[in-house]
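Final report, section 2: Outcomes. Of the targets proposed, Peptidase A1 domain-containing protein is the one most frequently requested by collaborating groups, and we therefore present its record in full.
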Amino acid sequence: VKAFTLFNTGSTADIISPDFANIVNVKMFQLSNPLILQLGTKGSRSCINYGCKVDFRLGEDDNQLLGKMYFDIANINRYDMVIGCCFMWKYGISVDLQRDSI
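The predicted structure is given below as tokens.
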């Protein structure tokens, strides 16, 4: 299943929307200590109560990255998932704005 994904170099969180998690039957678990999701605007924040570990495949057939990673479950607007800097650092992913590529 393809996910509409935001690669966000300003995010320390890796997030999947609850709707997408349900569509792909991700096994979610409740966090014993909910996390505050602080956004970039004053007074704008949310609470993360659930997480999941996901087996993923990223990329096209000739250039794929396979792995398993923890994701927070949070209400995000427009995207199925947000890939933050922790995920990108772990898997050596960089965003090249000059070449418009990842």
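The beta strands are 5-7, 15-16, 28-38, 45-60, 63-73, 81-83.
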